[in-house]
Design goal:
The chain has helices spanning 18-26, 69-77, 115-121, 126-133, 149-157, 159-174, 183-186, 188-194, 200-206, 235-243, 287-294, 299-306, 350-353, 355-360, 377-380, 384-399, 424-436, 453-473; strands at residues 10-14, 33-37, 49-52, 55-58, 64-65, 84-85, 92-96, 99-102, 107-108, 111-112, 225-228, 246-248, 253-259, 262-267, 274-278, 280-283, 310-321, 333-335, 344-349, 364-371, 407-418, 441-443. It is of the alpha+beta class.
Length: 482
């Protein structure tokens, strides 16, 4: 895309995570000069991979939803289809009430659709089950605006269902707390369905495939998740390579200002600043740095971005001999309710969930332990060795694993997960309204429409399309005078 004087139009992308790199990839065939500026020494944001016991294992997100076309589409466009891996099992449990109990099959992010099945799992007490069943007898809700997950789900199904079932699942996604998380934003399909169903359980059932007829086996469904053979952490460099963009690390953008011709970015240290001009800019960094960059340009959007809280967490990856486990490990892992007071919030038996890892090291079990929820900063302030020991102790209490792990990796993600607190949808609407008033400016990332990789990719495509539409609307650039 060139102006009448032959100059190619330019786009600067601030942030080299999966969102920013996807935006660059989408723009690859538009005839633009695209520059990606990443402040840290590496690309990928919360996607990273490194070896544990000689096996490449993700230290950030380790799976993406296969049912959303955005993630699979990018993998296919990159020519990585042959590297896709599917889970060996997705049978997960909840470690609560002194046992690892099977996660009900008929539930939507923890909201049960079958009370008899919920009762059989033993996740909630008989009193908790009786309270949940009141959902079918309560009058229909008239929500009248957003509310917390605790208010909406707990009001229908009781506190035990929230504490022991919904919170572990949403906590695994957001590292947040149900009393703070928005029902409308975090459970959007259920919120929509609830407006046409009297009970929340019926609303959840409407979002699930119908149960098989009595006496018949469940029909096998396509895999819910997928990953890449060498880890999802290999996706960002593949996007960077295929984008054709100029990609710079250690290039912190400190200021963003409007110019008569477009935008000026101030890059680098205060002692040696560099000015970079661009016709359009995509801001693909988390809410807090985005708020700082946009404070003078779009004050209203910056203020709304500054309202988004972030939770920190850590992934402790442990390698054990297969013989260290007293029983054969068959499930993909388990979640842990915050109410039970454990350090770990989730455990993934990676070598069981992803058979290609087991084939690489058949004598080892690789286990991922997730630690940290909103407000649990004190736990994360412990040294790596101490944090790993706490995670290993919880794993031993849950599974009976014996001895010490043969290898340990601790990865910390400070401020890694945006919190979709009550009012999130209105907040995002205010951000987008402000950005829309600034031609040639777009935003994308996990702070807006979903924290998963496919949602980030969709957000990046939207931002790239907005920038392209703006540049197309400008027509050819006039030739220089003289």
């Amino acid at each position: 895309m060139t102006g009448g004087g032959g100059r190619r139009r330019s786009v600067a992308i601030i942030g080299g995570g999966v969102s920013g790199l996807t935006a660059a990839f989408v723009l690859r065939n538009a005839g633009l000069d695209v520059t990606v500026l990443e402040g840290s020494p590496r690309l990928g944001g919360k996607l990273a991979v490194s070896d544990v016991a000689g096996v490449p294992v993700d230290s950030g997100a380790e799976a993406l939803l296969a049912r959303r076309a955005e993630g699979i589409g990018v993998i296919d466009e990159l020519g990585l289809t042959g590297q896709r891996e599917v889970p060996g099992t997705t049978s997960a449990g909840i470690w609560t009430r002194d046992s690892i109990r099977p996660l009900p099959r008929r539930q939507f992010l923890g909201v049960p659709a079958d009370f008899a099945e919920l009762g059989r799992t033993g996740i909630v007490s008989p009193a908790g089950l009786a309270r949940a069943e009141e959902d079918c007898r309560l009058p229909a809700d008239d929500p009248g605006g957003d509310a917390s997950v605790t208010t909406r789900v707990g009001g229908r199904l009781g506190g035990e269902v929230v504490d022991r079932l919904v919170e572990p699942l949403l906590g695994g996604v957001y590292a947040g707390r149900c009393e703070d998380l928005s029902f409308e934003a975090t459970l959007a399909p259920l919120a929509k369905a609830s407006r046409s169903h009297r009970s929340l359980a019926d609303a959840a059932a409407s979002l699930l495939p119908p149960p098989p007829p009595a006496g018949t086996a469940p029909v096998s469904a396509p895999p819910v998740f997928t990953t890449l053979t060498a880890g999802l952490g290999t996706l960002p460099p593949a996007l960077a390579d295929a984008s054709g963009a100029v990609v710079r690390t250690k290039a912190m953008v400190r200021e963003l200002t409007r110019t008569p011709a477009g935008w000026r970015l101030t890059v680098g240290s205060a002692h040696a600043p560099e000015a970079l001009d661009a016709d359009a800019v995509i801001v693909a960094v988390p809410g807090i740095p985005a708020s700082r960059l946009l404070a003078d340009v779009v004050p209203a959007a910056a203020a709304a971005l500054g309202e988004i809280k972030y939770a920190s967490m850590a992934i402790i990856t442990l390698a054990y001999p297969v013989t260290a486990f007293p029983d054969k490990v068959t499930g993909s892992g388990f979640l842990v309710p915050a109410v039970d007071g454990r350090v770990v919030k989730a455990v993934t038996f990676s070598s069981v969930k992803w058979p290609h890892l087991q084939r690489s090291q058949p004598k080892l079990h690789i286990v991922r332990c997730s630690v940290g929820r909103l407000g649990e900063d004190a736990i994360l302030q412990r040294e790596d060795e101490a944090l790993a020991a706490l995670a290993a102790a919880d794993l031993a209490a849950a599974t009976g694993v014996r001895g010490q792990p043969t290898e340990v990796r601790v990865t910390r993600w400070g401020g890694g997960l945006p919190q979709y607190s009550v009012g999130h949808l209105d907040r995002v609407a205010r951000i987008r309204a402000g950005i829309a008033g600034q031609p040639g400016l777009a935003v994308c990332g996990a702070a807006y429409d979903g924290v998963g990789i496919p949602a980030c990719i969709a957000s990046a495509r939207l931002a790239a399309d907005q920038v392209l539409a703006f540049l197309d609307s400008q027509g050819p650039e006039p030739a220089p005078a003289g």
